[in-house]
Design goal:
Number of helices: 2
CATH class: Alpha Beta
CATH superfamily: Gcn5-related N-acetyltransferase (GNAT)
Largest sheet: 5 strands, mixed
Order of helices and strands: EEHEHEE
CATH architecture: 3-Layer(aba) Sandwich
Radius of gyration: 15 Å
Structural class: alpha+beta
CATH topology: Aminopeptidase
Shape: elongated
Strand content: 35-45%
Number of strands: 5
Distance between the termini: 27 Å
Length: about 110
């Protein structure tokens, strides 16, 4: 298992913290991204179990390219949902500008 990752935090007040998961993956190494996300989720759950003051309520992926169907399926399998679309945000080498998704996974209720 990889070392516990450092998790950046976007926080305005208690109980509204979102764990941002900066991930870059490619079709040639999807396993690395999956391993990283699972490690981050595990780390957040461990902190929550210990009553850590960093009470993350959700994990957010800020840019998932809409044409990367494998990544979208992976994140959805890990309970991430598409919560927004960024039109024409990513320049694909073959398709030109394509949409990207913002995806989120609820960690606590």
């Amino acid at each position: 298992m990889p070392a516990e990752p450092k998790v950046p935090v976007s926080r305005r007040k208690a109980k509204t913290a979102i764990c941002l998961a900066p991930i870059i993956s490619s079709r040639t190494s999807p396993g690395k991204a999956r391993t990283y996300v699972i490690a981050v989720i595990s780390s957040v759950k461990k902190r929550a179990a210990k009553g850590s003051p960093q009470d993350f309520r959700a994990m957010q992926l800020n840019l998932v390219v809409s044409t990367n169907e494998d990544a979208i399926r992976l994140w959805q399998k890990l309970s991430f949902e598409i919560i927004g679309t960024l039109p024409g945000t990513f320049h694909h080498p073959r398709l030109g500008y394509v949409d990207a998704f913002v995806m989120c996974k609820q960690l606590a209720t």
